[in-house]
Structure formats: structure tokens, C-alpha cells
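Progress narrative, work stream C.
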Amino acid sequence: MVDMKTIDAGLGVASVAGGAIGGTVGEVVTTGAGAAEAVVDAVSTAQAEHATALSTAVAAVSALAAATAPALAKLPPADAKKATAGMSLLETILVDLKSIFGL
């Protein structure tokens, strides 16, 4: 993932530079930096929301695994093995998603 703090700092510098340059060019730089900062803020917010959603999903899968444990114990071994593999696959997918998106 991209270091959002570095990008944000760079945009802050660009905004200050635009103010120091002045004139039409300075105004365009300052306006562009402001617009880019708004995009960075939106991306950061979306990233936080996705991280929260994935954490909720991980917790739900863990709760489901714990809740189904007594029922799995009563199933025939082959069926219990399939159900456990399915839960494990779900947990792996969620971990992979967190890793892929750097959450």
C-alpha cells in the first residue's frame, strides 16, 4: 500500500509552495493540492470503513465456528471434516482480503 502520510505531507508542501509562488500558477497549485487532499481523505475514510467491515466479518466467522462446534461434534466424521474445512476456507479468504488490501 501507498504511504498516505507521505502523500498528505507532500500535498501540504505543494499547497504552501502554491501560496508562496502566488499569482495564477500559485492559485492553480494550491487548488490542485486542496483537491488532491480531498481525494486522499476520501480514500483514507473508505479504507478505514473496509477495515472495520473485514474485522466484523472475521469476528462473525469466529463466532459462527464457536457456535457450530457442538453440532459438528455430533456429525459423522466425514461431514464434520467438510464443514470444518469450509469454515477454515472462509477464515483464510478474510485473512487474504485483509492482506491484499493492506488492512
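Work stream C, second folded protein:
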Amino acid sequence: MPLDVSIALINTIEDQDLSFQSLQEDELIWMPPPPEILPPFQYKRCQCSGPSSGYEIGLKYGPLICRIRVTAWGIKYRESTPSTNALELIQVKEKPPYQLELFLL
């Protein structure tokens, strides 16, 4: 049984469109995929599915990189690139299928 994650993406960096760069492994299925451009103050959604053994989601928007580790026991994340901006991940749903909100600050 695959593990599903729904991610809401919100760019709160004023006057700056953020471009997406994929850091993904081949084992993941996106429906819909992350948006190529994340405009300021717009709410976008993407959904990912991967193996039940667990997987990692790598998202890069502009200078911000977030790696999300997904397992049947929960979600962990880390910010990979220090910059003048930050990000915040909020887990809305505690059990699979997971629901997350990622704020780019």
C-alpha cells in the first residue's frame, strides 16, 4: 500500500516568484506535480505517492530546499540551505494519507 502525502505550498516572499527544481527520486508518483513557478501569496497543491517502506521528498524553490522524510510512523523534515529566507512545515494530518502545509518565508 503506497504512502500518500498532500502538500499545500504558500510563498510569502513579497514580489518574488520562486522557480521549482526537482530533487526527486524515480520511485515517487506526483498527481498533480509541484508547480514550476510559485508566485507570492498564492496557494498551490501537489500530491505525492511512494512506497510503503518510506521515501524522501526533495523540494527546491528558489534558494530554499526542504527534504521531507515520509514513513508509516510519521513525517520529519529538514531545511537544507541557509539563506535570508526560511521555511516552515506544518503537519495538518498525523496519520497516512498525510496532509502538509509548506510556507516559504
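The two ends are 34 Å apart (CA to CA). No further action is required on this item.
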